[in-house]
Design brief:
Blueprint (H helix, E strand, L loop, with lengths): L1 E3 L11 E7 L1 H25 L10 H19 L7 E5 L4 E5 L9 E4 L3 E10 L6 E9 L4 E7 L2 H14 L18 E5 L2 E7 L4 H21 L5 H24 L2 E7 L3 E8 L4 E7 L5 E3 L10 E5 L1 H16 L6 H16 L3 E3 L5 H19 L5
Antiparallel strand pairs: 1-2, 2-3, 3-4, 4-5, 6-7, 7-8, 9-10, 10-11, 11-12, 12-13, 14-15, 15-16
Helix pairs in contact: 1-2, 2-4, 4-5, 6-7
Length: 380
């Protein structure tokens, strides 16, 4: 899934550069899973019904695969929520993020001064030397938003150069009032700021993942009929995924995420639900950057809070990967991935389950604003 400019060979006719979402590949894959999985799932459902006839061999395995495929199709067709379009507005000097919610007239915005540049990056996609090239927005907080991905460097470079030519990042705008998203409650009292939102995930996502987990459970049942080291290992792995999924959904029932801050500290907690607990506590003045990355084919669910050393280290690593002119070897790809994973793993984060892309962007900016009001310093 990527974004594209409709007439990339022509200059924009007004002050706006619009990138539309292209979901053809995701839609086709979702339809493939649905068409393949639906008949197989019927076989599995019929096998569960009481019958005097013996159940055919491997029917539970095939039925489980079918149900998992149907779940995957729902996830791809209905539950994969990413912005509908990105609009670079040269007149107003900010990037507008439009989502699919037709009822909402609120759109998240990113001022141009928060964007460093546009770039093309490369990464290896397989063991046989296949390469993928991405057009990315590089933000000053050290994160990146991937807009386009292709096996052709020429196509990725073409979009990157188009954005570099026509988006006027020199346009500076005064700070504006943030658009208010109702999902996030703001409470100011007794010298403290409290931000909170419900964790509950979208119904389509829960249904899709439940079907995938149920399908896995049926394959586990079939695998256990012929135990071996491989089947036991596969069963254990699938079982662990099912348990983690179930625990995650139980924790989310009736729970909220809450951020509290005073003049010295920020606390992040899960309140209500089955397992309420404090998840994070940081000195307010040590927060140098707040960011999240975006890739259309993955759905991030966290804001990362970095101190100055983490921010500088992450920005240096990310920039080094982007500026590497030579195609990285498999060993370099693995090394970069491990370094990046280690940096992200060690960084404190705020889980943003239940928030859309626009709401997550709003929360990032809201935290920056509130920290600046209390410390006089605005995180990147």
């Amino acid at each position: 899934m990527s974004y594209y400019v409709k007439n990339i060979k022509q200059a924009p006719t007004n002050h706006r550069i619009v990138l539309e979402r292209s979901s053809v590949a995701m839609t086709l894959m979702g339809l493939f899973f649905l068409i393949t999985g639906f008949p197989l799932s019927l076989v599995g459902i019929m096998a569960l019904m009481p019958s005097k006839e013996p159940v055919a061999e491997n029917v539970f395995f095939l039925g489980g695969i079918g149900i998992a495929f149907v779940g995957a199709s729902i996830l791809m067709l209905f539950a994969w929520k990413i912005p509908k379009r990105f609009i670079f507005d040269n007149e107003q000097g900010f990037l507008i993020v439009e989502e699919d919610d037709k009822k909402s007239k609120i759109h998240a915005t990113i001022p141009y001064q928060d964007i460093r540049d546009f770039r093309t990056t490369s990464r290896q996609t397989g063991t046989e030397g296949g390469m993928s090239y991405q057009t990315e927005i590089s933000k000053k907080d050290g994160s990146y938003w991937a807009l386009y991905s292709s096996g052709s460097q020429e196509k990725a470079d073409s979009l990157t150069q188009y954005l570099q030519k026509y988006v006027d990042l020199e346009k500076q705008v005064p700070p504006a009032e943030l658009p208010r998203y109702k999902k996030i409650d703001i409470d100011e009292q007794d010298g403290r700021t409290k931000l909170s939102w419900k964790i509950n995930p979208p119904f389509a996502q829960t249904l899709a993942l439940s079907l995938v987990m149920g399908g896995f459970a049926m394959t586990v049942y079939e695998l256990l009929k012929t135990p071996s080291m491989i089947t036991l290992a596969a069963t254990g792995f699938i079982g662990l995924i099912i348990v983690l999924f179930a625990v995650g959904r139980l924790i989310a029932l009736g729970a909220k995420h809450v951020i509290e801050m005073d003049d010295t500290q920020l606390k992040f907690s899960r309140v209500g639900g089955i397992f309420p607990r404090q998840l994070l506590a940081l000195p307010l003045r040590e927060i140098a950057a707040i960011h999240f990355k975006f890739e259309p084919n993955t759905q991030g669910d966290a804001l990362f809070l970095m101190n100055e050393a983490q921010y500088q280290g992450f920005a240096t690593l990310d920039q080094a990967m982007a500026e590497d002119d030579e195609e990285p070897s498999p060993a370099q790809n693995i090394s970069h991935a491990l370094d990046l994973f280690k940096a992200m793993y060690q960084t404190p984060r705020i889980q943003t389950d239940g928030l859309s892309f626009g709401e997550r962007t709003y929360l990032e900016q809201l935290l920056q604003e509130k920290i600046e009001q209390r410390t006089g310093h605005r995180p990147h």
